[in-house]
Amino acid sequence: MSAEATNPVSEAGATGPDAPGRRRGRPRIDLRRLGRAALLGATAGPAIRDRLPDAIGHVAEAHRAHHPEADLAVLRRAYVLAESSHRGQFRKSGEPYITHPLAVTLILAELGAETTTLTAALLHDTVEDTEVTLDQVHTEFGEEVAYLVDGVTKLEKVDYGAAAEPETFRKMLVATGNDVRVMSIKLADRLHNMRTLGVMRPEKQVRIAKVTRDVLIPLAERLGVQALKTELEDLVFAILHPEEYEATRALIAGNAGAGDALSAIAEQVSGLLREAGVGAEVLVRPRHFVSVHRVRLKRGDLRGSDFGRLLVLVAEDADCYAVLGELHTCFTPVVSEFKDFIAAPKFNLYQSLHTAVAAPDGAVAEVLIRTHQMHKVAEAGVVALGNPYSGQEATDQTPGGPGGPGDDGERVDPTRPGWLSRLLDWQQSAPDPDTFWTSLRADLAQDQEVTVFRTDGGTPGALSLPAGATCVDAAYAQHGEAAHSCLGARVNGRLAPLSTVLQDGDTVQTLLAQDSTSGPSPQWLDHARTPAARIAITGWLQAHPEAAKIPAAAPRPAAGVTTDRRSGTRLRAELPGTDTPAVRPAGCCTPVPPDEITGFVVRGGSVTVHRTACASADTMRRLGRPPVTVHWGDTDACRVTLVAESFGRPRLLADLTEAIAAEGAAVVAATVEPPSEQRVRHTYTLQLPDAAGLPALMRAMRDVPGVYDVSRARHPASPRP
To answer: Which candidate, 261, 259, 247, places its Cα nearest to that of 293?
Structure first.
């Protein structure tokens, strides 16, 4: 927990109004003054023994703002233990080390965390960095505090080596499954470390920022802690993209008066709602740095109203819709911007109405409408829910740590979301740290979910799966390892291949073979999106390498040549035992000339061709599958499917097709998915006159403003003739 230093931006930026993630009304703690107060508190005599030390005055004030009746005596005892145990330790920036747990605790207190969480936050580094033991914490502060402290304590590199970081995250996630407050403390800990990262070596800053981007920010999003997520995004933005960050900072500084446009609209909205008799608080909410950057990429030149949004807070759910009706009646609504996350909340607890209205002068203002309680949850997520084990749940716990089973044998915790349950399930099947770390990042990259429904009457009737999940994923989510014998599926009452991508609201019935000895095909790995499915399939294939082997006939020299209908290229496979084996490119890496390629025999005697560096090819080799020599034919032309990921903006499609045409490629087919979270996914099937021009084509597409990634499609489209 001890990533010390100053700030990734300048010291002036760290304390000034341009600091990333700075929110009005939330003063940044003064570490030097806090350090002096901590030292004075350590040397104070017995006359103030029962008085709250000055060093945690900030924490007490923030805590009492949310919990007026809170008992601060336990915080005083926790501070005394933390200060005495960390005494003599200093951060790399020169402040006493106690300033770090104090700052972490203050972050959580401002979000409204209850006393147990704050107590654990004060002590979160004692077991890791001092002589204090977990048993001492348990004796002094109880089982819950000890559980939280243990959950965020790192594993030693001496014991785990290079696996220490992934195994530490595994330990924290398992602990989070029993008590989400563990991850709340970890997120606040990482936020303060990111705020004070500047004196570390640049390469270490980048490494920590990348882990924060890939793991901690998605976790903050999934737990709904937007206040921490947005500031972490800005801090990562400053380290990984310093030029774009400086350009955005200069843009915001150069439009200091941009809020006037929104303020004028806010006054109109306030007057409108007063006349309608709707009690509401209308606020101007400035965008954070990354949000401004995304809007600029989407819309190009920004107007004053683009630098923020209006936030309307009301008392009841019904008032939200009353406000929406008044806005859409008296202003011109932008229909495409309307979203109802009250009737259909996001999977991270977020609820709000989103809309956008146009003022008479043409300025467009985005508006968020929510109740005060929704706003609290939107900012603090699971932190705002307090102690999930208080009241009846706490009294029903069985020994062994927080989150014991209730009377029905099931864990009672409404804060444990479906994605976390899935993560806890699949991590048990990933004993290898590298597999766990890779799967965790891939799982967290899935930032949307779909809900599908079982038709066989099983429990649960609804399955939550990441967007892009297929029937293979649904089978393993329903049946676990029994899905090895899956033969097919019915989607919305019709037979469908296992590769079918499921949509929100689909009904799914998986069909299992009576013979439980049958197993999955290696091709299922091309269709699996969830770590649970991929780990289960890979494990079965490794345990049954003989199942995928094709019995060899009497050897006779032969070579097969085929033309791939999707790519239009000719492939030659030298496979003893057959004259003309079917040869096709693999969907996982979509090889095209002049890629270096290798082939493997699959069920039915056909040959699947992979790029030599493909991960699936490595898996085949580890399973002992003999490679087949394959060659490209004489033709230079090729057909390839590319996926362009971009931020939405006007004329983006026209600019992309123009860049493609400039490289001499012909568009065979193109699809554009509906925008999601201001991001757009374009899929192009292209015919190139010369395969050697593919790298230049991909570079040209990446250079189009707003496009942040171009890659080969995992499942290339097959256009109709």
So the answer is: 247
